[in-house]
Design a protein that fits this description.
It is a single chain. This protein is mainly alpha-helical. The protein has one domain. The protein is built from six helices and no strands. Helix 1 runs parallel beside helix 3, helix 3 packs across helix 4 and helix 5 crosses helix 6. The radius of gyration is 22 Å and the shape is elongated. The mean pLDDT is 94.
């Protein structure tokens, strides 16, 4: 049986729930027997698998929605993907590459292969504005 230290447990908890366990949760964790810790650990790992599966499904849905938007814009007269992306991006203000990444992040796909390709496509078509300091 594996011996779980507090840091490892805290890391897994954060991966599952998005935040580290509070002091009370750590006290409960530390009071568990090794067998109870193993059961709790297994439950957390199972929940992490569920969360990751759900996130992949959401990413697929978001990609499909963005692709449908691109196709709609092409159908409205853009004629091709590059022009459609330019039209879609023209509704935003871009000052540098991080703005492009932020736009793709807002679509919910930045940390996917599709998102990385989309960032590259968009950086070739967006118009960057100069930042004005007041």
């Amino acid at each position: 049986m594996y011996t779980y230290d507090d840091n490892t447990y805290s890391d897994l908890h954060k991966d599952v729930y998005g935040f580290r366990p509070r002091a009370v949760a750590m006290c409960i964790w530390n009071a568990l027997t090794p067998s109870e810790k193993q059961t709790h650990w297994t439950d957390l790992c199972n929940q992490l698998d569920v969360n990751e599966t759900h996130e992949r499904q959401l990413e697929k849905q978001r990609i499909a929605e963005f692709e449908a938007r691109v196709e709609d814009v092409i159908g409205l007269g853009a004629g091709n993907r590059k022009t459609a992306l330019r039209w879609i991006a023209s509704q935003e203000k871009f000052y540098h590459g991080q703005c492009v990444e932020h736009f793709v992040w807002e679509q919910g796909v930045l940390f996917t292969d599709y998102g990385r390709k989309l960032v590259k496509e968009l950086t070739e078509v967006v118009e960057y504005e100069d930042m004005e300091f007041v």
